[in-house]
From TrEMBL:
Gene3D superfamilies in the record: 2.30.30.30, Nucleic acid-binding proteins
GO molecular function, one term: translation elongation factor activity
Coiled coil: none
Signal peptide: none
SMART domains given in the database record: Elong-fact-P_C
Organism placement in taxonomy: Bacteria, Candidatus Nomuraibacteriota
Entry similarity comment: Belongs to the elongation factor P family.
Name of the featured protein: Elongation factor P C-terminal domain-containing protein
Organism in which the protein naturally occurs: Candidatus Nomurabacteria bacterium RIFCSPHIGHO2_02_FULL_42_24
One GO biological process term: peptide biosynthetic process
Residue ranges annotated for the Elongation factor P C-terminal domain, each copy included: 136-191
């Protein structure tokens, strides 16, 4: 059980029998009243955002999210196909909505974590999302030439990665280079 002031960013709580990720939280006190924790929550199953205020007397359960390693195989007709890490014969598909924006950073044979949520022993596990490694190396397939003196825009240019994702990279990155990308933010971190 979490107290009202322990509900902070990064926590996953059970609210209305569904898992919610805490996006923001702010504990404040209005004049003579008791403190309140104003939070912004994201439903991990539906993606719905809700603003909820937790008062001093309220407590919530922390949601139990299970994780297991899976391997990405390929994408076909809006579905991402995966298999168990050690058993390629156990294949399954996930829709684009479940994988989310991180799908553009999936490479063939890449290992990721499948996050599932179980309310209790009697219910079937529900797939919450796929979590990629934080930093992944990609080969740059297309990069426009950097123009000398073009640093008014911060010295960046759009480059296309081997997965088809487009990110902003420094002017010195060329086609054929390997770059490391933060998959959570979609930002360039360094050249490898």
């Amino acid at each position: 059980m979490l107290e009202y002031n322990e509900i902070k960013e990064g926590k996953v709580i059970l609210y209305e029998n569904e898992p919610y990720g805490v996006l923001t939280s702010h504990v404040f006190r209005k004049q003579q009243r008791k403190p309140v924790n104003q939070t912004k929550l994201k439903n991990l199953l539906t993606g719905r955002i809700a603003e909820v205020a937790f008062h001093v007397s309220e407590k919530v359960d922390e949601a139990e999210i299970n994780s297991r390693a899976i391997k990405y195989l390929y994408k076909n007709k809006g579905e991402f196909w995966f298999c168990e890490e050690n058993n390629p014969s156990k294949r399954f598909a996930l829709k684009e909505e479940v994988v989310g924006a991180s799908g553009k950073f999936l490479k063939e044979n890449m290992t990721a974590d499948l996050l599932t949520f179980v309310l209790n022993e009697n219910t079937e596990p529900k797939i919450v999302s796929v979590r990629l490694p934080i930093k992944v190396d990609f080969k740059v397939t297309e990069a426009p030439p950097g123009i000398k003196g073009d640093t008014a825009s911060g010295g960046g240019k759009p480059v296309t990665l081997e997965t088809g994702a487009i990110i902003t990279a420094p002017l010195f990155i060329n086609a054929g280079d390997t770059v490391r990308v933060n998959t959570q933010t979609g930002e360039y971190t360094e050249r490898v």
